[in-house]
């Protein structure tokens, strides 16, 4: 059975390191802001199952702990 | 008082730490033993406590919930620039906390350009090269002072990534002396009076001036020869403010000093604590060697590695940052009243969080006195705060971790290390605003058979 999950990001603590974009460009991008840094933006918050391992790498490697994967039954 | 007499909102009094002395309050204790004092403040008063630093009323917040409120507060409420004015003479007027907020934001944006993920691979080749040079004359075995060695090595790696190989190989000796003079003006008394002008501060100002001459010489030389490089100086030389104005020579120098102050001692101290803890825990050494040897076997030793390649080494680095975080405190000035759980911190006071106190809370770090490189990362991102948090977190944090990881990948592949003194000989001391192992720091090394 397909493993369902969704991605949640906390934009308030993102500093645009873009590690997530390097890991999973199908899911994450950064967008410019008026502040000092660009910040993360989700291309999709419900990526297909085959991108789960890339999403998990992005979650684990984000220097600011911005990304959370919520697994759904 | 009857219920009807109560004001619409009530605030609880903030518990005041005992032991204030007439005239100076808690300043003597804070300046002498800041960590012991801040731990005492928390143990005595809990999550929110107040003390007096010679007239500067200061509130300490402890715990992830309080840290989150602190780090998410807007800049015009909890303000870093007002709390860190002692940095202005070091970096220069018009730079970072010496600039208006909008200019500081644009300067931060320029620093960020040099710390983007895609820039990292170039820096790591530079770091790897420096580590190879660092160990090339080590021979088979010897004893060395690891604190001095890491101070020297990270000065070279920082200078290399920041100012390029030409500057690094020509001028590191003089740069080190000037940098040392710049640092001497920063101590607890500078927090009270950022504008004092003692002999030390005059020396600091002379060093700032000479550094600008050296860096400007390098900038002009590159421009004359149309040289381009992968280092930070290239970024500063080509950067523009939003109105199209390039950085001045004064500002380029200030950006270089800012980068050095943010990154050098924090990385050298983290390296020192990591080596010390590796030596204190020999039960992990075979697994550590296996990890780094696998990176070499895969040919990844000079490039980008992640914590996935080196999970146990990463555990040692992160646990070193937890147990021995470099900064004694992270401070803001309250510009308008800050409310937290029924307490009001009034405008004009300083407010701070303390990584060392935060990282020893048993609710978030069970058995906090135990060094455990396999300790799970806490769920709450505001529990561990060695680099600060939120949108003001140190933008160099990924660079710092990668740098320390690269240093140890090389050191542990070629050498094994052993303490020259009993483990308890090496203590935490804080002679400046940074936590370091007590002096001297002898360690023995022996070349591995690989």
Q: Quick one: how many beta strands of chain A?
A: 4
CATH architecture group name of chain A:
2-Layer Sandwich
Helix/strand structural class of chain B: alpha+beta
Arithmetic mean of pLDDT of chain A: 92
* CATH-defined fold name of chain A: Alpha-Beta Plaits
- What is the molecular shape of chain A? elongated
Please identify the top-level CATH class of chain A.
Alpha Beta
What does this structure look like?
The complex is a heterodimer of chains A (73) and B (450). Chain A has helices at 19-23, 52-61; strands spanning 4-9, 28-31, 39-42, 67-72. Chain A has one domain: Alpha-Beta Plaits (2-Layer Sandwich), CATH 3.30.70. Chain A is elongated and about 40 Å long. The longest helix of chain A is centred in the C-terminal third of the chain and has 10 residues, at 52-61. Chain A has two helices and four strands, in the order βαββαβ. The mean pLDDT of chain A is 92. A two-stranded antiparallel ribbon of chain A has the order 1-4. Chain B has 450 residues and is of the alpha+beta class. Classes of the chains: A alpha+beta (73), B alpha+beta (450). Chain A binds chain B through residues 10, 12-19, 21-22, 35-37, 57, 60-61, 63-65, and chain B through 71-72, 105-106, 108-109, 112, 115-118, 306-308, 381, 389-391, 393, 395, 397-398, 401.
Short characterization:
Helices cover 21% and strands 27% of the residues of chain A. Chain A is an alpha+beta fold. In chain A, a hairpin with a 7-residue loop joins strand 2 and strand 3.
Features:
heterodimer; A: 73 residues; alpha+beta; Alpha-Beta Plaits; two-stranded antiparallel sheet; 21% helix; elongated; B: alpha+beta; Uridine Diphospho-n-acetylenolpyruvylglucosamine Reductase, domain 2; 50% helix
Mind sketching the topology for me?
The complex is a heterodimer of chains A (73) and B (450).
Chain A (H helix, E strand, L loop, with lengths): L3 E6 L9 H5 L4 E4 L7 E4 L9 H10 L5 E6 L1
Antiparallel strand pairs in A: 1-4, 2-3
Chain B lengths: L26 H6 L1 H12 L2 E6 L2 E6 L2 H9 L5 E2 H4 L4 H4 L9 H14 L5 H16 L5 E5 H39 L3 H5 L6 H27 L6 H7 L10 H32 L4 H13 L13 H13 L6 E5 L3 E3 L2 E3 L4 E4 L1 H4 L38 H18 E5 L8 E2 L6 E2 L4 E6 L3
Parallel strand pairs in B: 2-8
Antiparallel strand pairs in B: 1-2, 3-5, 4-12, 5-8, 6-7, 9-12, 10-11
Helix pairs in contact in B: 7-8, 7-16, 8-10, 8-12, 10-12, 12-14, 12-16, 13-16
């Amino acid at each position: 059975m397909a493993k369902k999950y969704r991605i949640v990001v906390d934009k308030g603590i993102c500093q645009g390191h873009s590690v997530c974009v390097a890991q999973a460009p199908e899911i994450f991008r950064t967008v410019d802001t008026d502040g000092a840094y660009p910040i993360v933006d989700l291309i999709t918050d419900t990526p297909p199952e085959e991108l789960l391992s890339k999403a998990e790498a992005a979650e684990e490697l984000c220097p600011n702990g911005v990304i959370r994967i919520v697994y759904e039954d | 008082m009857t219920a009807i007499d109560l004001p619409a909102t009530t605030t609880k009094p903030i518990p005041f730490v005992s032991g204030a002395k007439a005239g100076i309050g808690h300043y003597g204790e804070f300046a002498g033993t800041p960590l012991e004092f801040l731990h005492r403040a928390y143990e005595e008063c809990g999550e929110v406590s107040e003390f007096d630093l010679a007239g500067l009323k200061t509130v300490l917040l402890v715990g992830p919930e309080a840290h989150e409120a602190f780090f998410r507060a807007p800049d015009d409420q909890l303000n870093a620039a007002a709390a860190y004015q002692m940095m202005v003479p070091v970096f220069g007027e018009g730079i970072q906390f010496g600039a208006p907020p909008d200019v500081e934001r644009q300067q931060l944006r320029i620093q960020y350009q040099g710390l983007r993920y895609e820039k990292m691979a170039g820096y790591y080749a530079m770091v790897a090269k420096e580590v190879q040079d660092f160990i090339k004359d080590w021979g088979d075995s010897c004893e060395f002072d690891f604190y001095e060695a890491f101070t020297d090595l990270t000065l070279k790696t920082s200078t290399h990534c920041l100012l390029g190989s030409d500057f690094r190989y020509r001028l590191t000796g003089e740069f080190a002396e000037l940098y040392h003079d710049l640092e001497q003006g920063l101590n607890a008394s500078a927090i009270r009076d950022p504008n004092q002008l003692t002999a030390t501060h005059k020396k600091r100002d002379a060093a700032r001036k000479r550094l600008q001459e050296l860096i400007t010489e390098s900038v002009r030389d590159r421009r004359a020869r149309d040289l381009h490089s992968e280092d930070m100086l290239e970024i500063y030389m080509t950067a523009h403010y939003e109105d199209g104005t390039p950085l001045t020579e004064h500002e380029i120098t200030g950006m270089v000093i800012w980068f050095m102050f943010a990154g050098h001692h924090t990385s050298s101290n983290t390296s020192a604590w990591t080596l010390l803890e590796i030596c204190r825990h020999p039960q992990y050494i075979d697994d550590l060697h296996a990890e780094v040897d696998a990176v070499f076997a895969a040919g990844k030793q000079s490039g980008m590695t992640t914590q996935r390649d080196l999970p146990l080494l990463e555990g040692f680095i992160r646990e070193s940052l937890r147990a021995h975080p470099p900064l004694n405190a992270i401070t803001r000035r309250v510009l308008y009243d800050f409310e937290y759980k029924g307490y009001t911190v009034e405008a004009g006071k300083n407010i701070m969080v303390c990584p060392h106190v935060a990282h020893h809370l048993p609710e978030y770090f069970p058995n906090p006195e135990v060094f455990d490189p396999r300790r799970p990362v806490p769920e709450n991102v505001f529990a561990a705060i060695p680099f600060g948090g939120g949108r003001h977190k140190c933008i160099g944090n990924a660079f710092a971790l990668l740098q320390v990881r690269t240093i140890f990948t090389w050191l542990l592949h070629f050498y094994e290390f052993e303490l020259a003194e009993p483990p308890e000989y090496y203590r935490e001391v804080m002679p400046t605003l940074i936590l370091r192992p007590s002096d001297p720091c002898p360690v023995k090394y022996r070349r591995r058979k690989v």
